[in-house]
Design brief:
The complex is a heterodimer of chains A (326) and B (529). By secondary structure, chain A is mainly alpha-helical. Chain A has 13 helices and 2 strands; from the N terminus they run ααααββααααααααα. The N and C termini of chain A lie close together (10 Å). In chain B, β2 (67-69) and β3 form a beta hairpin. Chain B has a 5-stranded mixed sheet with strand order 15-14-16-13-17. A 4-stranded mixed sheet of chain B has the order 1-10-9-8, covered by helices on one side. A 4-stranded antiparallel sheet of chain B has the order 4-5-7-6, covered by helices on one side. With 529 residues, chain B is an alpha+beta fold. Classes of the chains: A mainly alpha (326), B alpha+beta (529). Chain A: This is ABC transporter permease. Chain A: It is found in: Cell membrane. Chain A: Belongs to the binding-protein-dependent transport system permease family.
């Protein structure tokens, strides 16, 4: 149980941080003019003052901001994420409906980026002056610099419009939904472009990182020792060097998990992927604060979980940290 | 009861007429799915308590209404096989068809109609629509008598599918209707019944086998796919993933899709929606409180340039508060043909001389975000155009709709671009902008210009109770002349509204409500898709 104590500290810190996140998000949102009632009225094509007042009272928007914050905090602490006034539904249900799509997209891109990124990094580290290495450098730079929505649009134009290999929109064919395996294949087919688009930026940073770190490790003394012992080069690279070279990449994956969610907002919007990101974006436009706050809370929690998992992974990969934990 | 209007067509005959307006002679083919593309996510599907296109398109498929309209503003029997308006205009009697059933197989009765009228009166955002209704009687299961406290000429139009869905009382009568779970799992008596809704993804409707008009609908399914991003919607349409896009108004998209040989692009229909794009003035703010200043701005703005160049000729010109397609439209108004010299002269005469920098005064102009062609681009045009008469214009942008609405409805503006719908009858969609009793802070699309003219108030009040259509049109004619002359608003153009659909689709919606009306006549030429 030597992991228990530091993890408990991390958990307490995380909880305190979560409360801060909730309060800060709530206050930030209040800075934007207008509320969900003005959006509802806008979509209805106008409404009488009586209707507007009734809606505001119903949603508690006629109360002072500290009072609204108090009510909201009280609810969140008891596990009630609130009620979307826009959709007249509990927020939790809305989020749970959208969560699987986002997790599928984010996790796929993450795995894609990790595998492809490190592979490219290692290959180019083995021949740092080779053609492939230069190609990876240029590719990384381009992938990292291009805005994700632009990449997405380009992907759409090239692979869905000019060469119609992939579908444009959504997660499955809505007119003729498949059954069983057909459905799974349909979803995978729809997943390709958004996952590649979202993975692109991270491929870039992981390949750069693993390349540098691999080069670093390959010049270390113990690698020279391993080679001197006469171990085959494959074994030296993949067994001895890779394990150490991966450490910074794992850190990066954990740290960037939250950013991946931010990227998902754009990718989901461009590809009409029915996930949390699109819901978040649309909730801002609708001033649907309970939904937005819940999504922010959710992603804050996911980031924290990812960080704790990174910590754990570190302890497993790197024996030095295990010792210090006591 | 003195009957001045009586229609005794059978529903079958009526349906034949409704379809005859656009159909050829070939017999419709059965089956197939129609995929409709939409950018907006509806709050729910209950059109009795929620207006707007996002709800109305599915709601008009799911719910039937007492009447329906063709493309010429003529009412046709729907759930009501006939109706009578009393001579004093204080009573309307509906005779319902006897074979109509809700999707749960219970019969549609007069009690459901009474319940629906009362629910709409209480909850629908368009308060003036049913305000004069005092009571609803149900002498028998298929007769409904509606009483008014004064004649209410807009009532027949208010019985359209888009405005008066008939709800089953046994489903919607319990508890608070706003949170009724059936709003998201609706039960109606229309041609299509609700099947599934994937939030933010699609709404699937399927053919209702016991629809009370025999032989309708022809399609097996309607799927409304929600694609929030307009670029994505256009790509999907070009690829053929989407069969029909109604309510399309972006000129760039219309132009682009017109080039596609597989698609039909038409502006037929939508006459009752009546969207007008205009420049509104804060008439209580100096120097815009002077009518000459507003008129001078009207002379300085080149409406022809806006319509032909900025909007590519796709948007018809708007000359006044009522759209040309309305039976109450009058073209007898001042057109303010562009005249820069006259505008300059008027501003000089008003004592607003040019300063040493060539500027008389400066104004801000706001615009609704999200529709650059009709809003932002025209605001930018005003900046350069009004410089020619010595007015410095600062374009003020807003990040999103609520921000803009907040500014305008709290009168924190000089001029703003705006886009407001007629909604069929002036009582519903026009009066609100000009009548002085509707100057109400923090209510968007009320009289935010704070325009007040006792003569206009009087004309609108008279017209709201005048049952003779010709006399009513006379009153609106005078109203239009005065309002255009007073320039609380300078009218620019009608928002283009187009329907795009695949070539094999027959009887695409052309009624005055466009696709916000039952699609029971629509079919695929090859019987499926």
């Amino acid at each position: 149980m030597r992991h228990a104590y530091p993890i408990a500290i991390r958990l307490v810190q995380s909880l305190a941080l979560l409360v801060c996140v909730v309060v800060l998000n709530f206050l930030l949102i209040q800075l934007a003019p207008g509320d969900t009632v003005s959006v509802i009225v806008g979509e209805m094509g106008g409404a009488s003052p009586e209707t507007i007042a009734a809606l505001k009272a119903e949603y508690g928007l006629d109360q002072s901001i500290p009072a609204q914050l108090g009510i909201y905090l009280g609810k969140v602490l008891t596990g009630d994420l609130g009620y979307s006034h826009y959709f007249n539904r509990p927020v939790l249900g809305l989020i749970l409906e959208r969560l699987p799509a986002t997790i599928l997209l984010v996790v796929t891109s993450l795995i894609l980026a990790f595998v492809v990124g490190t592979a490219l990094g290692i290959f180019s580290a083995r021949r740092p002056k080779g053609i492939l290495s230069h190609f990876v450098t240029v590719f990384s730079l381009a992938g990292f610099s291009a805005p994700v929505f632009w990449t997405g649009l380009m992907m759409l134009i090239v692979f869905a419009s000019l060469i119609p290999l992939f579908p444009v929109s959504g997660m499955a064919d809505v007119a003729r939904p498949g059954q069983g395996l057909g459905y799974v294949l349909d979803v995978l087919h729809h997943l390709v472009l958004p996952a590649v688009t979202l993975g692109m930026i991270y491929v870039a940073s992981y390949s750069r990182l693993s390349r540098t770190s691999m080069l670093d490790v390959l010049s270390a003394d113990y690698i020279r020792t391993a080679r001197a012992k006469g171990l085959p080069e494959r074994r030296v690279v993949y067994k001895h060097a890779l394990r150490n070279a991966l450490l910074p990449v794992v850190t990066m994956v954990g740290m960037e998990f939250g950013q991946l969610f931010a990227g998902a907002v754009l990718v989901e919007t461009v590809f009409n992927w029915p996930g949390l990101g699109r819901l978040a974006y649309e909730s801002i436009l609708r001033r649907d604060y309970p939904t937005l706050l819940a999504i922010l809370l959710f992603s804050a929690m996911l980031v924290m979980v990812a960080n704790i998992l990174t910590d754990l992974a570190y302890r497993l990969i790197d024996p030095r940290i295990r010792g210090r934990g006591r | 009861m003195n009957v001045i209007h009586r229609l005794t067509l059978t529903t079958a005959l009526a349906a034949a007429i409704a379809s005859a307006s656009t159909v050829g002679h070939a017999a419709p083919k059965e089956g197939g799915t129609l995929v409709i593309g939409s950018t907006s996510t509806p709050r729910h599907f209950n059109g009795a308590i929620q207006s707007g296109i996002a709800t109305a398109v599915p709601s008009t498929q799911i719910f039937a209404s007492p009447l329906r309209y063709d493309d010429q503003w003529n009412p046709h029997p729907y759930l009501a096989k006939s109706w009578e308006v009393s001579k004093d205009g204080l009573t309307v009697t509906l005779h319902l068809v006897e074979n109509a059933k809700f999707h749960d197989e219970t019969p549609v009765t007069s009690e459901d109609v009474k319940f629906s009228i009362e629910t709409i009166k209480k909850n629908h955002p368009f308060k003036t629509m049913l305000q004069p209704v005092t009571s609803v009687e149900t002498p028998d299961a298929h007769t409904v008598v509606i009483h008014f406290d004064h004649p209410h000429p807009a009532f027949l139009l208010a019985m359209s599918p888009a405005l008066m869905p008939i709800l089953p009382e046994h489903v919607y009568g319990q508890g608070d209707i706003k949170t009724n779970p059936a709003n998201l799992k609706p039960v109606g008596s229309g041609p299509f019944e609700f099947d599934t809704y994937k939030q933010g993804e699609y709404i699937k409707l399927k053919k209702f086998d016991d629809f009370f008009i025999k032989g309708k609908p022809h399609l097996d399914n309607i799927v409304i796919q929600i694609i929030g991003d307009e670029n994505n919607l256009m790509l999907s349409t070009e690829r053929g993933d989407i069969d029909m896009v109604p309510f399309l108004s972006a000129v760039r998209d219309i132009e682009r899709l017109k080039k596609d040989d597989n698609l039909v692009v038409t502006d037929a229909g939508y006459d009752a929606i009546g969207p007008i794009n205009w420049l509104a003035f804060n008439t209580r703010k100096q120097p815009l409180d002077k009518v000459e200043v507003r008129q001078a701005i009207a002379y300085a703005v080149d409406r022809d340039f806006i319509v032909k160049k900025l909007l590519g000729g796709f948007a018809p010109e708007a000359t006044g508060p009522i759209v040309p397609e309305s039976p109450f439209y009058s073209g007898d108004v001042d057109k303010f043909a562009v005249d820069i010299d006259k505008a300059n002269q008027m501003l000089d005469d008003a004592g607003l001389k040019k300063g040493s920098d060539g500027s008389r005064f400066s104004l801000t102009v706001d615009y609704i975000p999200g529709d650059p062609e009709q809003q932002r681009n025209i605001a930018e045009y005003l900046r350069s155009q009004l410089r020619r008469v010595g007015i410095t214009v600062n374009v003020r942008s807003a990040p999103d709709f609520p921000t803009w609405a907040q500014r305008i409805s709290s009168y924190d503006f000089d001029m703003t671009m705006d886009n407001v719908y007629n909604w069929g009858d002036p009582i519903i969609g026009v009066d609100r902008t000009y009548i002085s009793s509707n100057i109400r802070p923090n209510v968007i699309w009320s009289n935010t210009q704070q325009y007040s003219n006792p003569k206009v108030d009087e004309l609108l009040e008279k017209a709201a109770t005048e049952t003779d259509p010709e006399k009513r049109a006379e009153l609106y004619k005078e109203f239009q002349k005065i309002v255009v002359g007073d320039v609380p608003i300078y009218f620019l153009n009608e928002t283009p509204m187009y329907t795009v659909y695949k070539k094999g689709l027959k009887n695409a919606p052309t009624s005055i409500w466009g696709a916000a009306s039952p699609l029971d006549d629509v079919y695929w030429d090859d019987g499926s898709n």
